[in-house]
């Protein structure tokens, strides 16, 4: 609201700057001649001064005086043409100018400005009552504090799990590493670090993450998070039975109200589903990543058979319904993942043709294929 | 001389002077301007050893070799071709792998480019890796498109 | 609220500038005094609005308001407060707002102090200022709005380019802009004269102080930019003939010519048409400079902003203003009456020669700067025109000009006595000759070029001093009388002499550095020493250091003289700014008398050493001290009473000795 008042006052001032001279009566203007005369008089005085000081010779001074005198004569009496009366047309033009200011300014500002957006000085935002702040603001405040005091172990300790929760896994890794190096290792910090590394890698539990979980277990043999993720690592490697067994073992030792019970239950169910898929119950809709993973666990003959079935099904479906960009992607990826580059290329070509070579979808498909390392086909 | 003749003489003198200055300018342009090449351009153009040119491109990855003392060797590439450059001196702050550079100097008989100055782009914004990569993929480097 | 108020003020100022550019003009055409009178209040209010707008942006920077896109892009909460504030104009949008601020400031000055100008001239001048202002405000709003918002606001900015985080750069652009934009007043006066079809006597009196003021700022801006590049880029060069530098140098050359031709016009009413043309060209070159720097059309070592749409917009402004004013000139120049006549050998003749050389030099710089663009457009070849070209052409043009400088002030107006002037300069000539011989025989490693250069510099310096001495009447009158006469000399006489003296100092500095510089590049390990120019430099080792928004490795050196006495410590550093992931070199500089020792650090070598580049730069500080001298000279000249415009006789006090208003 205050802003609109200020804006209105500014507009008023700008309009007055134009309006006042237009309505104010003015004394009759000086003729241009009088201005020129003034300058020439000044020049004469200067010549006199210079001559008095001996800077120019008397003859030179006389010559200069004569020249200036000639200029004054040439000036003559030029009539004053200035008027103060306003013709109708001129008055209209003046009023149009006054009106133009608010019209242009407010019109343009309505188009460009964001009047509803308040100023947001950083200090104010950081000093706001924490209860009113969003998580982002709280994090920013903590970051500002830690940038100034990077050795504050407690700060890193608090910030690390928050980073993890809001999905800033990369920052979480740094924060966990900092707190471990400042405060020393504990099972919670190490398992948190492992989780952060895994999250940063899109859920893949790398050797780094695994090492962190193992350190957590060394510090506290019963650490649930570390146990859970190590079991997940087994599942990711395809050792579904071992993973399920590990999770089952956890269920036996965890207290009844442990928050880990439900994720473990889901994980076991998922592992069993994948195990049963791996046993050969082919799905209806092309091979998923899980199925390909599962296929890796089968005997070579079974695997070949399963893949052929699935790929053939997908291929058939695409022939029937070729405008399915997602389906083409899946087909190309399937061939590519299974190391059949020629077939992948063939699928890519057919997909591009089916989607229309210039379509956005075809371009997307090609880009996708390129991201898989499949050379562009001509 | 009449006033008109005098004026003509002055104007004539000024024009003569300007003509002389113009001739000097274009002579100097012919002599002193150095051509700018990317490594791939050098195939079409014939650059004699010893002729001063500017060679621009990206510093090829893994080619920076620190020699004895202050000598540095690296390759400048435009992703099609690359040219080996040797330079004796302090590299600019922004010199690093895959960064755009302009080197000025001339070719030795053996085809090595001996640079006496190396400029790295002082850019207002740090060029993100993706941008550099995509520019690289297109064979266009930011410096040459401006 | 503050941010949006600033934004609104900018929009409002644009609307007001449109009115300012039309209503007074119509008034001047129809002889309507009231409409003419609109110009003044509009210009002053416009300035107040832009000042409010600029203050709002500065406030946003000082408070790290990252809801402003521009602040987020160019600032960081950890930056020192000084650089937060100077960061306001360390980027494209902010610097253009500063440009407009200065433009409207000058417009407001004309409006405030122009009461003694003929009303129609004043109205036309303010209208032309209004056009320029409206064009650049539209440019800001359309392509580079500094008040664009970002929501939700991030909590941290992207930081300012580290090489711009420097006190030199805090002052350099405002100075340069004061210069560039100062010439806009001369331009407006020229165009106003063309619109009117006549040049009032007050015209030259007004144009000259403006030219002088703009010239002083431009000189300072260039000198400061040169010193900034010298110590901040870490190459130790003071001038690179870089397009960005040329962009500021061309208006300086043309402005220097304008300064001299305006003198002829004021004193003798001659060279009117030429002065008008020169005023147009000078500001055109300033606009061209803005275009070259802001569009990134030329490859430059420090091209800061590169955005094609902005380039096209500025190009359009450029075309309209330069093309329009030159067309107006072609149309109306013939209606301006020719002025006084003079002999070729006279003060006027010397000043014409000065103009010829300076404008030709500006033209060669222009050609050299634009030639690569031209060639690329025609044949597609990419060429670079660098120092060798400019040194040859510009150098060749400057030598005769510099040789002629001392003659100018010795010649009388209208009809001069060359022989007499030569006689009076005998002493200066003898001194210069002595300098040549001394350098040739007593300075180690000096070439003939160095000797002649030194001679030229001393010729300028002694010639300028001779002028002062003679004007004080030294050989004829008693010392006490001479002293009082010296004190009583018009300040413009001092201005001329000191400016020419400053020029001589700069030439001497350039000659010293170019011909006697010593450079060593070596790998040093801690404890090792290096001998250069009679000094010895011991490397003490490096140690890490953490600044507010950077980390650095500081290399410490101990400097000792030939006798082993310790002269001081020099610190040179490699800095790293993590936000921008950018390293910079902080040169270590030790000033010894007029000379400097310059150290920059390179990379660390595998065996624990570090590459060190050391320059001995003899007399290098004279380059900038000369520039400073020229600035002081210009300021002194500005204070001369003759440049204060007398008020019309109708004023309360008709005395011409006590002017009612001054322009300085």
TrEMBL record, chain A:
tRNA processing listed as a keyword: no
This protein's UniProt keywords: Cytochrome c-type biogenesis, Membrane, Repeat, TPR repeat, Transmembrane, Transmembrane helix
Keyword Transmembrane helix included in the entry's annotation: yes
Subcellular location per the Swiss-Prot or TrEMBL entry: Cell envelope
Transmembrane segments: 92-112
A Pfam family assignment: TPR_CcmH_CycH
Superkingdom of origin: Bacteria
Protein name per the record: Cytochrome c-type biogenesis protein CcmH
Source organism per UniProt: Neomesorhizobium albiziae
TrEMBL record, chain B:
GO CC terms of this entry: plasma membrane
Keywords of the record: Cell membrane, Cytochrome c-type biogenesis, Heme, Iron, Membrane, Metal-binding, Signal-anchor, Transmembrane, Transmembrane helix
Membrane topology: Single-pass type II membrane protein
Cytoplasmic side, ranges: 1-7
One MF annotation (Gene Ontology) recorded for this entry: heme binding
Chain sites annotated for binding heme: 122, 126
Gene Ontology BP terms: cytochrome complex assembly; protein-heme linkage
Family stated for the protein in its record: Belongs to the CcmE/CycJ family.
Entry protein name: Cytochrome c-type biogenesis protein CcmE
Organism: Neomesorhizobium albiziae
Protein encoded by which gene: ccmE
Automatic annotation (TrEMBL), chain C:
Family matches, as Pfam families: CcmF_C, Cytochrom_C_asm
Entry keyword annotation includes Membrane: yes
Any single GO CC term annotated in Swiss-Prot or TrEMBL for this entry: plasma membrane
InterPro entries on file: CcmF_C, Cyt_c_assembly, Cyt_c_biogenesis, Cyt_c_biogenesis_CcmF
Transmembrane segments: 6-26, 38-62, 96-117, 124-142, 175-195, 207-229, 273-292, 312-331, 352-374, 394-413, 425-443, 449-470, 491-516, 621-639
Protein's membrane topology: Multi-pass membrane protein
Keyword set, alphabetical order: Cell inner membrane, Cell membrane, Cytochrome c-type biogenesis, Membrane, Transmembrane, Transmembrane helix
Limits of the Cytochrome c assembly protein domain: 89-295
Keyword Amino-acid biosynthesis assigned: no
NCBIfam families linked: nrfE, PRK10369.1
Protein name stated in the entry: Cytochrome c-type biogenesis protein CcmF
Organism encoding this protein: Neomesorhizobium albiziae
